[in-house]
């Protein structure tokens, strides 16, 4: 009987392979659904490996990051277009859209940006995993120092504006006092947040952070555009001076005149002197906000970009560069003081313009030759090019090239005005030579700095062999390799060959010259606007816009060049 009972069971087990497969399929799916696996059974085709799933997550993360950047960029673009439409309407149709309407729009944008800045500093940055990384290249000390310096000057500018409006309160709306106060609060909060968080790589609330950064950047950009194009305060001061002259001669005018002439003159002089700093501050804030926007969601490898071996700033026996640079600095200070004393009067004598431009004509060729010599020495060096991706360095290059367009643009406009009018007069010849030399100097200096920034630092080149993994071989070979690397490293720091010494001399000379050329337009009256040649040729308002567009970029270029030259000096 047992044999008979087992007989029918054998045909069932001897079923066809197709039947076995179809019968096993539901069971197999059941086991996969419940999470159990058969030992030795192949994985289903739709189950991905860990590596594939990891890369798909990275791909989705990159797509989400690009989508967030695109949306926040479109937000900033729409805000800039809206504000630009208001400002253009104010310029071309002052009846329909007034300056007060533009101020109301900017006050609303500043209030929204201020709320986001406070939220970012008090809420976003306090999350547990918000600040896992910080960009070591972002927010260098000279950038943050410029931010504080120009932010303080912009606050002082608005204080002078409030004082000027209060002294004219009998013929002005009290509502006009609100806008400078809002800007003082906005500048103070923005400077504090950017100083403290300019290195952040935020990992939480990334889309909201990107939108807030782009909104703040668009607000600063619109403030810069308004400062470049709006000359209402300058016209008001000029009209008041004309009215005072008319009243002194016995002719009454309807112009709003200050009750205390001495106090008003202080406010006027302070406002006119600090006006370029406001535009400069907006440009620096835009640069810092853009770097923060690029760093949102960015993950850095441990010790990525860290430079523990960067040597301190030492002269290393450099003599000629500092001496020539100090000579240019002392001469520049003397010319600057003489020109400012003369500018404090009613009119500037012609010989002071000649002295001012003659100084530039003497200094700019020396700077250009130094930059060309430094670029040639870079070509003779053994250092390798640094081809690694570095967003901060890429932004430095873009800012260097973009800021150079300011002074170069003014120079080209001056060349056209001089050639078309009176090119044979002495002052006009000096201005023409100055314009041509300023273009040449900007091009040569950009080549020198960009070439130096893309060279691998010397301490990395010297210590490259030390970072390599030890090869298989005898202990004697390993010891000899380490000894050669150590000797090369010590030789690099203890001995300066002629190429390195020449680069350091050139960098120190250019640093002092750029500081001189930064000081003269930043803290004084601008000869480009006061000599009258281009103003008569292009008209007051057109030349006002050109100068206010180019001069802040020129000041920013000199400061940015000093930072780049210091880095080239340290890496030489």
UniProtKB/TrEMBL annotation:
Name of the encoding gene: OTOP3
GO cellular component terms attached to this protein's record: plasma membrane
Keywords from the named record: Cell membrane, Hydrogen ion transport, Ion channel, Ion transport, Membrane, Transmembrane, Transmembrane helix, Transport
InterPro entries xrefs: Otopetrin
Transmembrane segments: 70-96, 102-121, 141-162, 177-195, 273-293, 313-341, 353-377, 397-419, 506-526, 538-557
Comp. bias intervals (Low complexity): 1-17
Organism: Panthera pardus (Leopard)
Protein name: Proton channel OTOP3 isoform X1
Molecular function per GO: proton channel activity
Main location: membrane
Pfam families given in the database record: Otopetrin
Family membership: Belongs to the otopetrin family.
Topology versus the membrane: Multi-pass membrane protein
Top-level taxon of the source organism: Eukaryota
Chain positions covered by the region annotation Disordered: 1-44
Subcellular location: Cell membrane
């Amino acid at each position: 009987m047992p044999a008979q009972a087992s007989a029918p069971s054998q045909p069932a087990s001897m079923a066809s392979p197709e039947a076995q497969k179809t019968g096993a399929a539901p069971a197999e799916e059941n086991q996969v659904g419940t999470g159990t696996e058969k030992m030795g059974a192949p994985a289903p085709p739709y189950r991905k490996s860990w590596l594939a799933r990891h890369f798909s997550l990275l791909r989705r993360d990159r797509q989400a990051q690009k989508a967030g950047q695109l949306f926040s960029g479109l937000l900033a673009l729409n805000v800039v277009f809206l504000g630009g439409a208001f400002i253009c309407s104010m310029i071309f149709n002052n009846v329909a859209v007034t300056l007060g309407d533009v101020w109301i729009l900017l006050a609303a944008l500043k209030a929204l940006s201020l709320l986001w800045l406070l939220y970012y500093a008090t809420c976003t940055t306090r999350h547990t995993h918000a600040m896992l990384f910080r960009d070591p290249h972002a927010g260098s000390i000279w950038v943050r120092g410029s931010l504080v310096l120009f932010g303080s000057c912009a606050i002082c500018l608005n204080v002078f504006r409030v004082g000027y409006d209060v002294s004219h309160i009998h013929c002005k709306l009290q509502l006009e006092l609100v806008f400078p106060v809002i800007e003082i609060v906005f500048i103070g909060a923005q400077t504090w947040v950017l100083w403290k968080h300019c290195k952040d790589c935020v990992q939480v609330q990334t889309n909201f952070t990107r939108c807030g950064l782009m909104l703040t950047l668009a607000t600063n950009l619109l403030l810069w555009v308004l400062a470049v194009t709006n000359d209402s305060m300058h016209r008001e001061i000029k009209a008041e001076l004309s009215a005072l002259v008319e009243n002194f001669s016995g002719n009454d005018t309807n112009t709003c005149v200050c009750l205390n002439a001495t106090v008003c003159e202080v406010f006027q002089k302070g406002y006119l002197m600090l006006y370029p700093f406001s535009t400069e501050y907006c440009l620096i804030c835009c640069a810092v906000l853009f770097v923060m926007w690029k760093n949102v969601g960015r993950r850095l490898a441990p010790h990525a970009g860290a430079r523990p071996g960067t040597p301190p700033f030492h002269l290393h026996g450099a003599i000629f560069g500092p001496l020539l640079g100090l000579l240019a600095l002392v001469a520049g200070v003397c010319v600057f003081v003489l020109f400012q004393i003369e500018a404090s009067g009613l009119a500037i004598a012609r010989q002071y313009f000649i002295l001012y431009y003659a100084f530039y004509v003497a200094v700019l060729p020396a700077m250009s030759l130094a930059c060309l010599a430094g670029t040639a020495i870079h070509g003779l060096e053994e250092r390798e090019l640094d081809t690694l991706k570095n967003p901060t360095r890429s932004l430095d290059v873009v800012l260097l090239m973009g800021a150079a367009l300011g002074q170069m643009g003014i120079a080209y406009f001056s060349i056209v005005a001089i050639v078309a009018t009176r090119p044979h007069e002495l002052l006009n010849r000096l201005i023409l030579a100055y314009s041509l030399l300023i273009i040449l100097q900007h091009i040569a200096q950009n080549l020198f700095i960009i070439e130096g920034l893309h060279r691998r630092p010397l301490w990395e080149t010297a210590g490259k062999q030390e970072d390599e993994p030890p090869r298989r071989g005898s202990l004697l070979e390993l010891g000899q390799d380490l000894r050669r690397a150590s000797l090369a490293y010590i030789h690099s720091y203890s001995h300066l060959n002629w190429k390195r010494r020449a680069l350091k001399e050139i960098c120190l000379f250019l640093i002092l010259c750029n500081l001189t050329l930064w000081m003269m337009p930043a803290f004084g009256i601008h000869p480009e606007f006061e000599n009258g040649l281009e103003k008569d040729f292009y008209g007051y308002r057109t030349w006002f816009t050109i100068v206010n567009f180019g001069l802040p970029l020129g000041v920013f270029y000199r400061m940015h060049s000093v930072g780049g030259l210091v880095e080239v000096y340290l890496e030489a």
